[in-house]
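Case study 2.
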Amino acid sequence: MLAAHRFRYGLLAFDIVIVLFVIASSFTKELWWVEVLDVIFGLVILADFLARLAISRHRLRDLLHPATWVDVVAILSFLAPLAGEAGGFLRVLRTLRLLQSYAVLSRLRADIGWFRRNEELAIAVVHLIVFLFVMTGTSTKPSIGRIRRSATMSMPSILR
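Prediction:
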């Protein structure tokens, strides 16, 4: 039982590292080592996903669950550098999966008094952070420039 608790806390720590990595890498230019770390994280998450699927008693039900599709999107966004695509802002979706896990929530309640007293606040903050990442990740600087150019081209010349 103790090993299971350590494993869950390990997953939580891994997800915190992922969020910190996503934040830090969002301020860097496209560097080769960042893409390598993306792929490594993606492969670790894929291994976790496949292991959970392998030990599942209800694979079809699990595959149809929305949280499974959140995991798939997160995995694809981490592995996107292999295809030359970027979807890094979707990587934080994995955090939602972990915090929706009853086992992790009950362990946090049992072990951490602050979490027990402020569970709703903690979950709301995580949801807010994920929302901000997804919403700000959908508009990048190059696309904003394209929007500005196309907006000025479509404006009547008297307004320019």
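Residues 138-160 have pLDDT under 50 and may be disordered.
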